Amino acid sequence: MEQEKYHFGMVGLGVMGRNFILNVADNGFSAAGLDLDKEKVAALNSEGSGKKVKGTTSKEEFIDMLEAPRCVMLLVPAGKAVDSVIDDLLPHLDKGDLIIDGGNSFFEDTNRREKYLTEKGVHFMGIGVSGGAKGARLGPSIMPGGKAEAYDLVKPILEAVSAKVNNEPCVAYLGNTSSGNYVKMVHNGIEYALMQLIAEAYDVLKQIGGLSNEELHETFSKWNEGKLQSFLIEITAAIFTQEDPETGRMLVDAILDKAKQKGTGKWTSQNAMDLGMPVPTIDAAVTMRELSALKSDRITLDSIFDGAGTYPSVDKATFVDQVENALYFAFIMAYAQGMAVLSTASEDYNYGLNLETIAKIWRGGCIIRAGLLEHIRKAYDAKPDLINLIADSFFATEIKSIQGDTREVISLGIKAGVPLTAFSSALSYFDSLRSGRLPLNLVQAQRDFFGSHTYERTDMDGIFHTEWE
Questions:
Q1: Residue-range domains of the chain with CATH
Q2: Which residues are catalytic, by number?
Q3: Which of these, 16, 21, 100, 199, could form a disulfide with 73 (CB 3.0-4.6 Å)?
Q4: What pTM was computed for the model?
């Protein structure tokens, strides 16, 4: 008898790959998995018992199991590992087959790989997958980029496995070439910013407001029922209830204050600079992770400058409300920065991105999912060419009502010596954008003075230079 063919293939059966393939099977599609690690293959076959799933360590068997045109997804570490797997698979594939890179690959690598595989007659797509291991199993947000005809080959499967909001799949074709990986990169940049802002809110609530872990749990839980409703606020509330089995204390207090990173936030900052687009809150989040790594230096300097700030007295309930408004304000700025970069990149890289669609598929499954995204979706649906998210009437009204609390929280943090790098950057971003005049006329005068770089004038057209000395 002819061997049964499988609809979908997965290379890389770690937790993410294994959960994704089981999700595929739960949604009515048969799936084959490949991994050189026998234990990972055995885990898939065990967890997939009774489902249309089969794992193998043989790439020849794996390829032979797939129906034509083959759809093969890779969930392996970004970088050389992706190129290595592609080179291993390519001799066994036919023209018209599809390889999907589902990792956090740098978008320029995706452009290179698509060009290379197109020349071989094989489709290639880079797609962003967000939601962690749980999202991969139960429904992630998926950000596909590449040729539209390639997406059509796998569209039914991706729509079936994705998260759903109002019965709408959190996946949509985004654009050509590396658009999927680019959107995921910016998603992660926003994620960095939101996480840092939440950490800074926690810090001022604890140090200035004097909130206990129980009170922090109650505060974040309440916030998650209002305008800050989001996955990150939800898990933050839960973190404050986790006991450390080693000491019996709250686990959050035992965790070292050194944050690691895998590079996607840094890529967002670097590429935004290449595009000439300001993302100061994302920059600040990356900087704070780097500063956190200087633990021994910070301990030394803490002993030198102990008592640099003076803790102000605050009414706890009032302060909690002010911090909520400040965090909401900063969340808006973080999303605004990310959407502005996407808009510019879409034009510069010819992606053809639809910002309303991106906000729509971010509403569920992904790490930055939040109630706020429905308002963002509506803003870009009403005006696709919006100059900036903060120009939308809904957000403009919200900002006007909460900017005062934002300024107060930051002022109190400065007085207390509590670092609010991300909060301050968010406010400065807003203040700079809303300023019809910035002091950069002086910078231009300086540049012309020492380097004859010329300048423009406010009162006449043309390019000018002055002999200053």
A1: 8-177 (3.40.50.720), 184-433 (1.10.1040.10), 439-469 (1.20.5.320)
A2: 184, 191
A3: 100
A4: 0.95
